[in-house]
Design goal:
Length: about 475
């Protein structure tokens, strides 16, 4: 009676306890506006969800976004960012002359610390600072520095990326995808020095051997500039670049109301179809729109309660209970579209038919699929929280049963059956032979009698002499 009540109680509990989650992987929405960028990917690092992507695997020139990889390599190789001083070699400027790349006015022969050069590169996209850093770390070998960049890319899982130079000079064979650039963005944001530099709105470079006065660098990411038309509150990194040939590109981060999004945009045109310059920065416009859309339409929620049972499973070999409650092993958090009714998301257990005692607290037993509109959108492991002891009597009975029903037992049964059948066959065959040859059988019997009689006659009685 107690077990029946327990089962009914759980069934009622499962009906009244909602379980909710949203997409475990893949995109979960599409904005209702057009984007100018060739490739886009919008990602939530807390849940691992991709909210939206467009041509995320298309190979494109990533131009100066390569400088994030340059920063990562420098951070690994430089021993002291402040004590190490670097002099800008004149030969490096030949690579950049007449190209119109962004600059921080780092001049030939100028001596700066590694940290100052990193700020010039990260804040103001200084191509010359990137070239100087690459030259310094590689001791003058651009090919070797490119090798270091590509080696780091493989470590990050960037399988579709090729780096050729420290600054991101175009038409040098470099290429990547928005999906790979997302990995680079994550690595940059995970480095406290690089992420701090990318979030710095203004940086002052002190006077030195070339510049008699200090100079102020302004971040090219105008999403962080409150005086800009592109300003978005919460934007905090990481890099925006652009050239006429490749277009505008950016690696962005924004945090607001406890949510964080990473965004990659590549290839927003700088020239229209007639070759006319486009004044509006499409990369910044796309970034602002996508952040507004994401923060306005999605909310982050803990959707599975680890303290609430979600299903049950039959237990064998226990004399105490026939069922055990199962709970989510961990909290399950996802971004949920504001219009989604949480009660429309339910947990579908994927479990064995039963489980044998003993069961230890915390033991993982199957998992639950979270389903929305017939689609599996997430999975969560299920565990038992209560201990269930094994009945030794039931266990021995089950063991005995298993022995008699094991494959080896059936093999023995089969062999015995073959022996019995063989014996019966031989016996039947012998009887049949008797019936077929009765005369031979009588003669054999008479011969046997004569042989016995002869032996008796020849036998000498005890004590008798000749």
């Amino acid at each position: 009676m107690k077990k029946v009540f327990f089962s009914l109680f759980l069934s009622l509990l499962m009906v009244i306890t909602p379980l909710s989650v949203l997409a475990e992987s893949g995109t979960i929405g599409t904005p209702a506006f057009d984007l100018t960028s060739e490739a886009v990917i919008l990602y939530n690092p807390d849940t691992g969800q991709i909210l939206y992507e467009k041509n995320a695997d298309k190979s494109l020139d990533m131009t100066g976004l390569s400088q994030i990889m340059t920063a990562l390599v420098v951070m690994e190789r430089a021993e002291d960012l402040d004590e190490e001083k670097v002099k800008a070699r004149a030969i490096l400027y030949d690579r950049l002359y007449g190209m119109g790349y962004p600059t921080a006015d780092v001049r030939q022969g100028e001596i700066l610390s590694v940290r100052e050069l990193l700020y010039c590169m990260m804040v103001q996209n200084s191509y010359e600072a990137a070239e100087i850093l690459g030259d310094y770390i590689s001791e003058g070998s651009e090919a070797y520095f490119a090798e270091l960049m590509n080696r780091k890319a493989k470590e990050l899982g960037m399988e579709n990326t090729v780096f050729t130079n420290a600054s991101g000079r175009e038409n040098t064979g470099q290429s990547s995808t928005a999906r790979d650039m997302l990995l680079l963005l994550q690595a940059g944001m995970a480095d406290p020095v690089i992420s701090e530099m990318g979030a710095t709105l203004r940086y002052t470079v002190a006077a030195n051997n070339v510049h008699a006065q200090s100079r102020i660098l302004v971040n090219s990411n105008r999403l962080m500039n409150s005086s800009s038309q592109y300003y978005y509150e919460g934007a905090n990194g990481l890099k925006v670049v652009g050239t006429l040939a490749t277009g505008r590109c950016g690696l962005f981060s924004a945090t607001k109301n406890g949510l964080t999004y990473y965004l990659v945009v590549l290839g927003s045109p700088a020239l229209d179809d007639k070759g006319e310059y486009i004044a509006e920065n499409g990369a910044l416009t796309d970034a602002k729109k996508l952040f507004q859309w994401a923060f306005s339409n999605y909310s982050y929620k803990e959707l599975v309660d680890i303290d609430s049972p979600c299903t049950q499973i039959k237990v064998t070999l226990s004399s105490d209970t026939d069922f055990v409650l199962l709970y989510p092993k961990e909290n399950f958090s996802r971004l949920v579209p504001n219009e989604v009714d949480e009660t429309s998301i339910y947990l579908r257990p994927v479990l064995p038919e039963f489980i044998e005692a003993p069961i230890a607290p915390g033991q993982e037993i199957g998992y639950g699929e979270l389903v929305l509109s017939g689609e599996v959108i997430g999975k969560v492991p299920l565990i038992a929280k209560d201990e269930v002891k094994r009945s030794q009597i039931l266990y021995l009975a089950q063991l005995t049963k298993n022995i008699f029903l094991s494959p080896w037992a059936f093999l023995v049964y089969g062999l015995l059956l073959l022996l019995i059948v063989g014996y019966i066959v031989l016996a039947v065959y012998h009887n049949i032979q008797k019936k077929k040859h009765p005369t031979l059988n009588r003669k054999a019997m008479q011969s046997d009698r004569k042989s016995v009689a002869l032996q008796k006659k020849r036998r000498i009685k005890p004590g008798k002499r000749r």
